[in-house]
Design goal:
Elements lengths: L7 H10 L4 H8 L3 H10 L5 H11 L19 E2 L5 H24 L12 H4 L2 H11 L10 H7 L3 E5 L6 E8 L3 E7 L4 H18 L7 H16 L2 H4 L9 H11 L3 H10 L5 H14 L18 H13 L3 H7 L4 H8 L1
């Protein structure tokens, strides 16, 4: 392997994707931390023997380190307040790795990028109006969207479950090569949170992709309002809500609307069906019943699974007459890891 063909950015990506610090990689490979640091920081080349040791530890195909591409900068995720920086770095690296491979696949297939409407709230008047307009443009029936993942993929938005190594991060949406929309989501999400997360990222794609935003709190507020209206349109859900809302009613409505009891509760408050005090009372009931963090299993919503990426991989592999091992190598992966990541 020729030193000059190694891209330091790809080595950093591979190391962080495995969750290793420079010290970790030095311990595992036997290559000094100072050499690794100098290579990553200044592109001061290491010897072939050192590079081979590192590659053996990181377990990606040699082709990855020759890739001449940039990585995405750290991004905003749908997540809880506190997530360890090292965990976020690992998630960032893995999202970068997926988007590199998916971008290569789509470009190799000459896949036509979808033409998605851009509906910034600053132009439509509100996030809720953006959601209602998109439902009309996509000719969705009134009421419940039975399979949101299928709707997204019908409109060219790829959904990808990813191991995020934590329950505190939900998702990130990316426009690969500035044209292919992909939503990466935490494979640990339950069905109700997955649907809200996908609607949240859809709002981000159609409202913010071409529009600068001021703060993360503004972006998050807009996307939450978009998701609530997209999944639970005011015109329809109001017929199911009244001021006598209780835990049993919320559980029943969860089965119909396929969103969490919490999401329906907050929707009822936003629509002024219940007061803030009523919402707080019900949240206290959730706490007393032990269902604040984990709603009853008997109310679980089925987990939707996307098929678009799988179908694209299958189509490309068939056309190129590639084995599973060769397809894995195309994605810079061993056969086993390719199967694990892309099922």
């Amino acid at each position: 392997m020729q030193n000059e063909k190694i891209n330091p950015k790809m080595l950093i990506l591979a190391r962080e994707a495995r969750g290793y610090s420079q010290a970790d990689l030095a311990d595992l490979s036997g290559v000094s931390r100072s050499n690794i640091s100098r290579f990553e920081r200044e592109n001061i080349q290491m010897g072939n023997e050192q590079i081979i040791k590192i590659i053996e530890v990181l377990k990606f195909q040699e082709s990855l380190y020759k890739a001449d591409t940039d990585v995405l900068p750290p991004a905003l995720y749908r997540r809880r307040d506190k997530v360890a920086a090292r965990t976020l770095s690992q998630i960032d690296a893995n999202v970068n790795f997926y988007q590199l491979n998916i971008g290569n696949l789509l470009n190799a297939m000459q896949w036509e990028a979808p033409k998605l409407p851009m509906l910034p709230a600053s132009e439509t008047g509100s996030p809720e109006t953006s959601a209602a307009l998109l439902r009309r443009q996509w000719k969705l029936p009134k009421g419940v969207i039975e399979n949101l993942t299928a709707v997204l993929e019908q409109h060219g938005i790829i959904t990808v479950p990813v191991e995020f190594f934590t329950d505190r991060v939900d998702s990130r949406s990316v426009l690969i090569d500035d044209k292919f929309p992909v939503i990466f989501y935490n494979k640990r999400l339950l069905g109700d949170r997955l649907r809200f997360t996908l609607a949240y990222e859809l709002g981000h794609i159609v409202m913010h992709t071409r529009t600068p935003f001021v703060t993360f709190s503004d972006l998050s507020k807009e996307t939450n309002l978009f998701a609530a209206e997209f999944l639970m349109p005011k015109e329809t859900i109001l017929k199911d809500l009244d001021d006598r809302l209780n835990v049993e009613a919320l559980a029943r409505l969860k089965g119909k609307w396929k969103t969490s009891m919490h999401a329906i509760l907050y929707r009822a408050e936003d629509l002024k069906v219940i007061t803030e005090n009523q919402k707080r009372y019900l949240i206290n009931e959730f706490n007393a019943l032990g269902i604040r963090k984990r709603e009853p299993k008997e109310t679980d919503v089925p987990i939707e699974k996307g098929i678009l990426l799988r179908d694209l991989i299958t189509k490309y592999r068939s056309k190129q007459k590639m084995s599973v091992k060769q397809m894995g190598a195309f994605f810079h992966l061993t056969e086993d890891e390719f199967i694990q990541r892309y099922n």
